[in-house]
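Good morning N.,

You mentioned wanting to compare the apo and holo forms, so I went ahead and generated the holo version with protoporphyrin IX containing FE. This is what I fed in:
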Amino acid sequence: MTQLLLNVVDWSRAQFALTACYHWLFVPLTLGLGVIIAIMETMYYRTRDEKWLATTKLWMTLFGVNFAIGVATGIILEFEFGTNWSNYSWFVGDIFGAPLAIEGILAFFMESTFIAVMFFGWKKVSPRFHLAATWLTAIGASLSALWILVANAWMQYPTGVTFNPETMRNEMTSFLDVALSPMAINKFFHTVLSAWVLGSAFVIGVSAWMLLRGRNRDHCLRSLKIATWVGIAGIVLTMVTGHSSAVTVAEHQPMKLAAMEGLYDGGRDQAIVAFGVLNPEKTVDNDENPYLFDFSIPYGLSVLAANDPHSFVPGINDLIAGRSINEAGDTVSTISYAERIERGKLAKEALAQYGEALQSENTARQAELRKIIDDNFNHLGYGYLERPEEAVPNVPLTFYSFHFMVAAGGYLLVFLFVVLAMLYKPQWFKRLRKLEKWGYYLAILTVPITYLCSMSGWIVAEVGRQPWTIQDLMPNKVAISDLSVGYVQTTFWIFAVVFTALLIADISIICRQIAKKSKLDLEKDHD
Amino acid sequence: MHNETAIQNMTETATRGSLFRRVWNFYIEGFKAMTVGKTLWAIIFIKLFIFFVVIKMLFFPNFLASQASSDEGKAQYVRHQLTNNK
Ligand code: HEM
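and this is what came out, ligand included:
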């Protein structure tokens, strides 16, 4: 590891990736299971059938374990912003400041109030109030993910701000542009809805385990029905929002899209790779075939990127060269990366001189420089690059993560519909009785597959953005603090130990609870 | 998560006293009645202690605050960082 990761930029990134990934192991289950238990409790409220109460309480216990262990793991990311990514934290200004703090405080109070009612309030508040608290916990959890996702979307597509070279901060000029940017909307819905799928897979997997052991069959079937419906709604909407995410990525981060597809030379009527193996020898500088093997769907990428089978999708080489093809089929020039580097350097140089003009209080010179900065600000980040190739993300990691996410999404769609059919039309599956046991194993295996799928989504979003911390404006090497490698390494390993311990605690307590509860007759003994 | 006697006590006390007292009792008795919850609370408190006291205080100072005290000073420091040797 030490040989692979040599400098403070890599260690800071590795540390952020480690903590963000661990944090993300807890979050989607809270979001997804929250909705599932709220629906289960609604069933209890409407039917007043104690069986529904028992079912709700079992999943609520598991929700509680995951919530308790996961809560506050996200705060570590904020510590890192202030210490390891201080240039970035200052530069993003309003976007990360007050709204995140307000959100943190609001979420804390909302969650601590409603979760307390959820767990302590069964016999103390009215059933209606209890149900409201459960729904508010689920909704509050999703809302508390909102601003951090808006902030992440802003890093992919910085909008609604004006850069002030005097304060060196991006000052928000339009809250709505920031909060309602297409990137933010897609990110919020794609993330939250994909968490429904994960919650659903979790309930299905745990129920399958109990069924495999022949325990609490009725309870499992009730759970499966709710979870499967939530999962189906989740996967269909995840696919819809996945598509619209791809459209916004194509528009604002075309290099990410090209990396997702391993596309070096793009074109109109662009096919999408359904399965493929990348050629490890391929680089920007050679003419090797990008794939060792690929199975492509004609027009697929043009449709995914722009809802038009004939649209032009640029590849990595097209973007670097600033080459596009218009609707008439003519090759036209856009801005090349070499030119962006030039313009970035202009902005950077003007920024340096602006500091001097500020000190000498030369306002005329400040105005002159400000114009140069404003005119070239969109390319500022390129001013830190030596060669255009530095603006290409890690293609294999982005490509395989994207393809895994989409393939797993396709699998989950089929899986959930098959589970639904098994629940409502068991007669269709009579002949497959002998395979029942394997079906349960598959359902259990689907839980880690869904976690991996969700994690791959974040890899696509974050690795695909590289080398930028903020798209086009700030590369990682500028965003980090001037710290020593040893310092960042130390905290990396501290986090690795602490988070691994938390994960082990989470998994072992959840497993013990499942084992313990499944031995009870849940319908009789559910307190 | 609860045991029966504690729940009965909760129900009795919850109906008495001021709003503040009722809320207080709600939480205290809720906590008392927990089983797996106790382990979880122990984990939460140990975790918060490690995060905020050990990790935050020892390893995660506000870096910019250590470079400059005023906002102008911080802006100048960041400008220097963004325009020199990078
Ligand atoms: C099957 C079709 C799917 C498509 C076309 C799709 C598309 C995308 C795209 C383009 C991104 C990158 C967005 C960005 O960089 O801003 C993304 C991110 C992500 N995806 Fe998917 N996805 C699909 C399925 C799934 C599934 C099944 C899950 C999880 C169960 C999932 C979870 C995520 C997550 C957590 C992210 C990161 C958050 C975000 O950037 O939105 N995706 N997806």
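The mean pLDDT of chain A is 92.

Happy to go through it together on a call whenever suits you.

Best,
F.
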